[in-house]
Hints:
Strand content: 25-35%
Order of helices and strands: HEEEEEEHHHHH
Distance between the termini: 15 Å
Number of helices: 6
Helix content: 40-55%
Shape: elongated
Oligomer: single chain
Amino acid sequence: MQPTPQTLQSILSSTTLAWARTFSAPADEQDFGSDDDGVFALNPSRVTIETSVTIAGKTYGVTYQQNHGRVYRSPADESGLAWVLFQLTLMFGEHFAFEGNAHQEEQIEAFFIDGSGRTTNVGKFAAQILARLDVVAERAAEAFVQPVLEAA
């Protein structure tokens, strides 16, 4: 049984996201800020963002990592749903909850969201998804198996 658009909307509206991120850079490549927190890396060599999305009581996870310009992703499940939602979140400019000052947040966000834009593999993938939102919604609806719908 295929879910109706209303059912899909109900499921997606129950979505919650959880984030964790780490930045790492060699000590000699770190930038020194003027804030009280001291050192922060504006150009880290590796960024790892782990996110999980809970939909209708079922949790999906994905890890996004940029290591020296190479982008990796490793879904924690086969659905790919968390990855799609994560990319849509990035492309819509969702703010990460950085624990630095506003300048630091703007710098890092500009580098990893605006700077990446639609030119990186991540950006290109997300742009393709955004260009076909109707197909994405249709495929997402097909991806939900009956037990998940019943759990909703």
